[in-house]
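One chain given next:
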Amino acid sequence: MRKTFCIAAILAAACAAPGAGPFIGPFLYTAAPRYQRASESNRFPQGAAVVLVTTAGERRIAPKLYASADATVSFDGTRILFAGTTSAGVPWQIWETTAAGGTPRQLSHCRTDCTHPVYLPDGRIVFTQASSTGSDIEIADTMGGAPERLTYAPGRRATDDVLRDGRILFENDGELDTVYPDGTGVEALRCDHGPRRGDARQIASGDVIFNVGGRVARFTAALASQAEVAQPAGDLAGPVAEIAPGRWLIAVRRPKGLFGLYLWTQGGRLEPAATPAGVNAIQPVLLRSRTAPKDFPSARMETRVNGNLLCLDARVTKDKPIPEGVAAVQVYTRDAAGAPVLLGRQSVAGDGSFYVQLPADKPLRIELVNAAGTTLRAERGWFWMRSGEQRVCVGCHAGPERSPENKVPAVLLRSTLPEKMLGETK
């Protein structure tokens, strides 16, 4: 009890003593005595508190909770979604409160930690739930309905943002991936496979700003790979909050080892915005209305229990075509122990196309082999198909920025029925 009281006292003092600096409009941040970026399961070992900064000062939005973090704001700017826990060791849940104040409402009832919530344009929410193999992305309404799982592969995932086109942006074992709100169309945001990336947000230009190795970088629509960003010196913690083009609220490590929030105008100097004593100030979010992303209409066919995948040319990559002769495609899943299990093998048509039916909601991985059965290329990670999903890809590793050629794939001239690769689910 003494430890809990001391933590609460530290956080309360931090809220009562905001750092000096220019007022940039109301915003939220997470105040935490300790912040362990590399430990997703224990990021805040001494508790944390989401703090709202206004012209009247600072206040905790959930003072009765042991810890709160991961705040996000509704598109009309009136509600705040966040993760929180009532006591140390108790699973984190998803909560909502109004920006005007009041008692927070618990939205989830997870058996394991649920964190990183984000609003969707249709009124639902998407968040991350810890699992036995890492964590997964789930979607739910705000009325207490059972959540639906969207991701079906081993590893750690964390929700980051919802892009303007309606896709959910999330971290996938150090990569930045996207998926639609019905769990279909999962793919890498970019296929340059750089260092571990996370804490990503889309800014007004359409670019995605993310943290990589204590610095920030960006993905720009016109480029297929990571681009550098002008930024202040020092260790940075994401995500950033964009105040206006070229003006960010960003967490920078202070001389005593704690992070503080600063206003950063590219090409200018840092101005303190929230530098409370004795705690880290991270995860800035502006409390303002914004344009909602597009509402994605699902194309899943409810009458089908599996998914169909059409590849237009397996030889195509993001750089240059595979020079070796691609003879067949092999698809694997995983058994209960995590070992790969071959679902099937199909010959590739002369133009590199293939068409297969795959089991839904299972981890899947593709390999390309030559006539002798030697593996030419193999996916490093796993993807999945949802029931009723009809998916078309340009190539096995073409990158999301490549468009298909205007021609009929040879495999469809051979047959319009997919080759079944369902393993024991046949």
Remarks:
- Residues 207 and 221 are 7 Å apart (CA to CA).
